[in-house]
Design a protein that fits this description.
Number of strands: 21
Radius of gyration: 24 Å
Structural class: alpha/beta
CATH superfamily of the largest domain: Phosphoenolpyruvate-binding domains
Shape: elongated
Number of domains: 3
Strand content: 15-25%
CATH topology of the largest domain: TIM Barrel
Mean pLDDT: 94
Number of helices: 17
Distance between the termini: 15 Å
Length: 480
């Protein structure tokens, strides 16, 4: 099943998309990767969804990526004695360690780390930023604040501290349990929420031990400030605009989105743009014009993937949302401006033989108007390097590893075919041509360019490229 676009689509599963029939329709409509949000999913339900996805994968004959999104540490207020309260601008409001119901002047904060780390002059945001406090006085177990933006507060509302480095891990005990269960179930990607520092990524890597690729969700100012360090340790990034727009001024989010997208492109790491992309399609069969422009902007910027959250998880039109995203991507990628922007953002290759060969393959393929760039890859690194170049011809990755194929389902422009590793160079060229023909990427009489690492099967050793002619005999042979 060949997609007619390069940008990938991530669809979140939920109550509206939890049965096999809908999941298969989502895949047919264009979803490449499916996200399971562990904030709302039990271990048993996660395993059930993964089993369905693997069944759909077998039926459709194309690798499907599974992304498990960990909840991360949730910071919440205590409860209020008489129900919701109103806090007014200029009033004093205290957060303390007294485990007793609160009122309009104080509330219990069951996170001593916050009371320890917060300092006078720093901002605290409650209920997704609807209420803003400024810390004015600190004593042991007690933080006095001034209400900068008032509003209604009720039990267990969330707390954010955009200016404070909090002294705890991005992996709460629930996240560790969820991650172990997800790894046992055979996921492909894990997304880490509310990371602040590169050490959060390193901690997750000790647990995954290569069993899944690690995606860093950039949603806190501290993570933006240390983006390069975090990116070095991550396999991919997600621009998580929801919480990023809570902890930073909303007007800064578009610029940060571009910064993250371009930095990931330079580093050759996949980047996903997420949150409220087609929000109105939760209740409407068509999006707003502004939402279409928002999705298009992410695609013009060269994002590897765009993501649907509630639109596909809980909305009334999950399949229509994926179909709409697919149409937007196809239209944007057909626009002449798209290639101009993509080419203008191309970074110089890294000073390695593998990167130099990928850059040369892109230039040769475009100069000679070749039909496809075909990568033999066991680990996926050759295909990732090629995707970094954003070539005009399509990228076909041939891999003996199903896990590699699933990982590459998130990567811009990569169409992965699972098959046995080549026996020798002649077999490699012959089968690459057959696959290009069978998958609809090259017609008889056209040429393709082939990248591989020699000796064959050596991960990360891209050191060969070859131009090959697709003959009429390739139409009659078994492709894999």
């Amino acid at each position: 099943m060949r997609r007619l676009r390069r940008t990938k689509i991530v669809a979140t599963l939920g109550p509206a998309s939890g049965d096999r029939a809908v999941i298969e329709r989502l895949f047919q409509a264009g979803a490449d990767v499916f996200r399971i949000n562990m904030s709302h999913t039990s271990h048993d339900r996660m395993r059930e969804l993964i089993a369905i996805l693997r069944d759909v994968e077998r039926a459709c004959g194309r690798p499907i990526g599974v992304l498990v999104d960990l909840q991360g540490p949730k910071l919440r207020l205590g409860t209020f004695a008489g129900g919701p309260v109103m806090v007014t601008r200029g009033a004093s409001f205290t957060l303390d360690s007294q485990d007793a119901p609160g009122d309009a002047s104080r509330v219990f904060l069951p996170h001593p780390e916050i009371l320890e780390a917060a300092q006078p002059g720093q901002t605290l945001l409650l209920d997704d930023g609807k209420v803003r406090l400024m810390a004015t006085e600190k004593t042991p177990g007690r933080l006095v604040t001034r209400v900068e933006v008032g509003g209604r507060l009720s039990d267990r509302k969330g707390v954010s501290l955009p200016e404070t480095m909090l002294p705890f891990s991005a992996l709460a005990p629930k996240d560790r349990s969820d991650l172990e269960a997800a790894l046992e179930a055979g996921i492909d990607w894990v997304a880490l929420s509310f990371i602040q520092r590169p050490e959060d990524i390193a901690e997750a890597r000790k647990i995954t031990r290569g069993r899944a690729s690690v995606m860093a969700k950039i949603e806190k100012p501290q993570a933006v400030q240390r983006l390069d360090e975090i990116m070095d340790l991550s396999d991919a990034l997600m621009v998580a605009r929801g919480d990023l727009g809570v902890e930073l001024p909303l007007e800064r989010v578009p610029g940060i989105q571009k910064q993250i997208t371009r930095a990931a492109r330079r580093a050759g790491k996949p980047v996903v743009v997420a949150t409220q992309m087609l929000e109105s399609m939760i209740a409407s069969p068509v999006p707003t014009r502004a939402e279409v422009s928002d999705v298009a902007t992410a695609i013009f910027e060269g994002a590897d993937a765009v993501m649907l959250s509630a639109e596909s998880a809980a909305g009334q039109y999950p399949v229509e949302a994926v179909t709409t995203m697919d149409r937007i991507a196809q239209e944007v990628e057909a626009d002449p401006t798209y290639r101009t922007i993509i080419q203008g953002q191309r970074a110089e290759p890294e000073p390695t033989g593998a990167d130099a060969i990928a850059a040369a393959a892109r230039q040769i393929a475009e100069t000679l108007d070749l039909s496809a760039v075909i990568c033999w890859t066991s680990s996926g690194s050759t295909a990732l390097r090629m995707a970094r170049e954003r070539p005009e011809p399509p990228i076909v990755a041939i891999s003996p590893s199903v896990a590699t194929g699933r990982k590459l389902s998130l990567v811009w422009g990569v169409h992965c075919v699972i098959g046995e590793d080549a026996r020798n160079q002649d077999d490699m060229v012959e089968r690459a041509c057959r696959i290009a023909f069978a998958e609809g990427f090259a017609k008889a009489g056209r040429r393709v360019i082939i990248l591989a690492g020699l000796p064959l099967g050596t991960p990360g050793a891209t050191n060969m490229l070859r131009i090959a002619f697709v003959g009429a005999d390739h139409a009659d042979a078994t492709p894999v």
